[in-house]
Fold this sequence. Notes:
The complex is a heterodimer of chains A (about 375) and B (about 150). Chain A has about 375 residues and is mainly beta. Chain A has a single domain, classed as Porin (Beta Barrel), CATH 2.40.160. Chain A has helices at about 5-30, 130, and strands at about 35, 40-55, 65-80, 85-90, 100-110, 115-120, 160-170, 175-185, 190, 195, 210-220, 225-235, 245-260, 265-275, 280-295, 300-310, 325-340, 340-355, 355-365. In chain A, the strands form two sheets. A 16-stranded antiparallel β-barrel of chain A has the order 2-3-4-5-6-7-8-11-12-13-14-15-16-17-18-19. In chain A, strands 9-10 form a two-stranded antiparallel ribbon. In chain A, strand 5 (about 100-110) and strand 6 (about 115-120) form a beta hairpin. Chain A is globular, with a radius of gyration of 20 Å. Chain A starts with 6 loop residues before the first helix and ends with a strand. In chain B, strand 2 and strand 3 form a beta hairpin. Chain B has a five-stranded mixed sheet with strand order 2-3-6-1-7. In chain B, strands 4-5 form a two-stranded parallel sheet. The radius of gyration of chain B is 20 Å and the shape is globular. Chain B contains six helices and seven strands; from the N terminus they run H-E-H-E-E-E-H-H-E-H-E-H-E. By secondary structure, chain B is of the alpha/beta class. The chains are: A mainly beta (about 375), B alpha/beta (about 150). The interface of A and B includes residues 105, 135, 167, 169 and 368 of A.
Amino acid sequence: MERDISSNSFLSMRMVRYWLVAALLASNLVAIPFSYGGLTTEFLAFPSVTGTHRSQVPPVHGVDREDFIPAVDLFITADYEDFRVLAELFTEANGTHGNHLERFQFGWLPGDDLEVWLGRFHNPIGFWNTAYHHGGYLQTSISRPAIIDFEHDGGILPIHLTGLFVEKRVNTARSSWHYAFGLGAGPYFKEHHLEAVDTFRSEDNSTKLAGSLRLSWSPVSTVDNQVGLFVGGAAIPGEVSKFEELKQQIVGLYTDWDFQSMRMTGALYSIKNDVRKSGKRTDNSFINSYLQLEMPLGASWTPYGRLEKSMGDEDDPFLHHVHAFIRDRALVGVRYDFLHNHSLKLELSKAELAASHYNQVTLQWSAVFP
Amino acid sequence: MRVRFTSLIFAILVLCNGVATVVAAEKKVVLVAGAHMSDVRLDHTEIRQLFLGGDIIKDGVRIVAVINDSDPLLYEIFLQKIVFMSARTYERRLISRVLHKGGQRMPYVSNLSSLEYGLTTNPGWVSFMWEQSVHTLPGITVIGELWHGSIN
């Protein structure tokens, strides 16, 4: 499908330039964490440039055979006594994502590892979505697993919610339990993809409730290793021409474990899609899973590989409306870390969509400042 | 001649023993804070969480972990024996934590006098250093031991 090369891409290029200038100014102003009268702030900028070549053009709006996408994710946070605010703004040129305030959260942190947030947040549906957010530099790979892709990029789950988000950690002598609960306005369906609620733009489409609950466990000896379970649900309004409403139920488990010589990240999702069209309901359940292995070689090189697989999704009444969803994928890549917080990544992948398949080569530079 | 040879062997053995003692000297890395925090105690779980960017509040004071970057060997011991990560992995984890939860990045302090000043003037600051360094910093108190062992 041809991309619309018009004022839109020009505008988004211009927007990226504006944001890059704003990011540079901001990083100069707040490169050193700012503190005044009990108010403290922190700023992070995650720039990236990604070049992609595909063996053929996938049937996805906004995606070409070749892509060149400069992007920047800006993050700012401020604390005052027990209260915290954070915002994450992502902007890119030439891609499917556009410019969005991805997260905007007001938090109350009364202590005892309890955090209560209001605003737009990333749904704790598995591991990846709340581990890396939009900071591409932080994840070893270039791509996210398709099941947890952002709504604009062909994701099929409610990735962003606007409402209440609560996190609580409970430590015992040998382990640490972490609870996360999110409930809020979920996405709606529009033109072959899901669309999350935009905090600062008026919405033409109505939204309904979505939520999830995640429980994870970590041993004390390695606090960041974890295994977890999650459940979630969403009611997603559709387009009249496609379907009126989708009810989605999600159950799954995940792990992120660092064995020193190898890191393993994986998840298993069981999803039930119940679609109402012309008053008639059709449902289907399917399984999706991914497993990523990373093997650091010295301080700079990290080869990695990931397999993603869907089962039972062939006749799903919702998935065939989401053209960009990648059902199966196999990829290998290598990450090279250099200087202070810069990385170069090369990724080769083979992707299967419902109606096509393609091979892809992606090269990305990413970093974090300051 | 025989006596001299025995004395020589004895002297060499004593010397070797002394050298070995120096090379494999036992070192201690301790958790330190300003003297005003001498009553604060952190268990191993809290210490690990603290240095991985977690929030710990003790007696109403938010504890802030500070990285002592004044000695490369000390930082390497901290990475290998206390957080069990490479420097790049550790720094990525810290940034990841801030991106998820907000708050400030962990301060890195690259000389001991600045660290002493920071620990004595900022409520809640804790850091780590060689035990022997504490003796030269009068405003600092030891609130725990993080690691001990020999360094060859």
